[in-house]
Amino acid sequence: MELRDIIAFLEETPEAVRNLRDGLDAGELRARADDGSFSFVEHVCHLRDIEREGYAARIEKILSEELPSLEDLDGAALARERLYNEQEFESGLEDFSRSREWNLFVLRGASEDQLERRGVFEGVGEITLARLVSMMCEHDATHRGELRELRGQLLSRRPTEA
Hints:
Blueprint: H1 3-21, H2 26-30, H3 40-64, E1 69-70, H4 75-81, H5 89-108, H6 112-115, E2 118-121, E3 125-128, H7 129-157
Parallel strand pairs: 1-2
Antiparallel strand pairs: 2-3
Helix pairs in contact: 1-5, 1-7, 3-5, 3-7
């Protein structure tokens, strides 16, 4: 994918998550997937924290430091420690949206040379800023797919009318 296409996809993610949530009640937003993985609330809190503490921090480091170390984050541990499923979906989504807007503002202003700047991502190795942007897209695509599947599971759990 071209960078502009990736950025467009990244820009659409908050609205895509909002659309997938439509029509679900508060209980459904906290219900976990059949396999026990994240609920809607947990997904949005994860996206928020990874956007702020992961991607924003990594983007800044790559742009301001010479070959910085880029910390990996344990999303499952954050979910447990921060009690994601007890948080509010709407505020999590708004915080994610604002953080995403800022990151996209920075990325749209990045020059070709800046997109080739490098960092060392824990557990991955050396990456460019452009590769980090692709990783953001892959991460979003995974969560959007999981949320589509979870929505289907939640709707199938509803009692059928006689």
